[in-house]
Amino acid sequence: RDDAIDRRTPSTSMYGALTSRTTMGRALAPRPTTTNGAGRSRRCAHVRAEAKKITFDLESRRKLQKGIDKLADAVGVTLGPRGRNVVLEEKFGMPQVINDGVTIARAIELLDPVENAGAQLIKEVAGRTNDSAGDGTTTASVLAREMIKFGLQSVAAGANPVNVKRGIDKTALWCTKKLDELAIPIKGPADIRAVASISAGNNDEIGDMIADAIEKVGPDGVLSIENGSGLETIVEVEEGMEIDRGYISPQFVNDTERLMVEYEGCRVLICDEKIEQVKDLVPLLEEVSQNGSPPLLIIAEDIVGEALATLVVNKVRGVLKVVAIKAPGFGERRKALLQDIAIVTGAQYIAKDLGLSVSRANMDCLGYARKVSIAQNTTTLIADGASKEDIDLRVAQLKQELAETDSVYDTQKISERIAKLAGGVAVIKVGAATETELEERKLRIEDAKNATFAAVEEGIVPGGGAALVHLSKLIDEFKVTLTDPEERLGADIVQKALLAPCRLIGNNAGVEGDVVCDRIMNNVWNFGYNAMNDTYGDLIEMGVIDPKKVTRSGVMNSCSIAGMVLTTQAVITEIPKRDLKKRVPGGGAGPAVEDGAFSI
Fold first, then answer.
1. Cα(155)–Cα(325) distance, rounded to whole angstroms?
2. Which of 444, 461, 458, 569 is nearest to 132 (CA)?
3. By the number of CB atoms within 10 A of the CB, which of 51, 75, 277, 359 ranks highest?
């Protein structure tokens, strides 16, 4: 009990045993005995905070560089059309054999805490590039490693890291502006196919698949990737707008074999109120009946009671062709989705907020859908009743919302709404013989999809690292505008680092990377090296192209992290538990356990 008095001596009490134990690296000191006003003894425990290790100056930068090199080397082997794969061990299930830079980077954790801090910085570069462009993570990691390496050499030689960082930032900004000037807009399906093929590791089959899917759904469409059930990878395009709501009552079914409701030339009523009284619907139903009794789809918050019974009875007797579904979504999102459906079908959204009511609705309030297919849990509307101006206005509004949101969930839902309004949804069902191959193919297709949408958005540049090599040559004209010699040093660092991706692509292809860079640098912008067939020429004509957005994101993110590392003077890390002295049950400190040895 809390108020019980422990009359044992400290040496034999239950608290005395705590003096020789450690918990999570923190020693529990003996509890001193205090006496409260009632004469009862109480014991207090003092917990010592965990110690930290501080690494300074040259040693901290050297260890950071070592961790950065380890991660960049592991990621760099995948670069280029002749890059190799990396095997990732899984705690459960089969190992993954992958070629995706950001996935490899996220899997790496190093034993030394300072080295691991360096690896985490490069992981951040890969993650940021993947978030913004969806591809080019390996290139960004290699660029960051080179910038940090050359930058640390300059700082060790006595350069001011703050001024060097300022020079790196100015050069990165100039490079992005130059890329904007030199980028070429996408001209047609051939360019899309080339971008997707290159991003998927020169896989023409994936390139054709992505190009066909985007041609069907349009640049604003959604391309989703799922596991297929067979060996082949197929593309399925979902036509029309799909709603995740089915019919309210199975009595509305007119296709009993498939348990579906299907109507053509259907009128659509959209409202956000709960309909309970039949008197609210009678005026509209009478007007529909007088106009030739076209099929009628009612989308409402809910339809219950006598209103639902009246609809079912009239449907069963053949008086009306009618079906009702509940409004999709919840809260504010429900209103937004109903407005989308109203725009697509050309209907008037009967909203309580605007003082509108179903009881006052007429034929002019109804929209039109060419075909309606309603299952138990889904509804598909194929509508032609919308004006292009209304849809373009709504899509522009949604794109503005998309640019402002930080939520991954909101981003996904808004993208789906844009796709349903402007284009469509294409599903790539990936097939493979084994689970390992399936995961690898999915990652390649995901990269190809992201690269393709990035290319459609901002245009293309020569691939194979050639754009960065030519950009490196052009930095000479920018350096003369810098007056501070240490800022020019920052520009030199970026200039030398931009050659690294092309050099590594050449090395991975079995040729001398420096020779490849030298030959590309002395030619025109489109000239480069095709590592797949070991030839030089016009890369745009060869179809070896990269999205400008991917190249720009890689340069910006790598420059950002490089500047941060250069201005680092100390690293504070936790002391690994293997370095703490192991305590033995008797209370004394036993010998430290060496790496690879067991302690019993």
1. 68
2. 458
3. 75
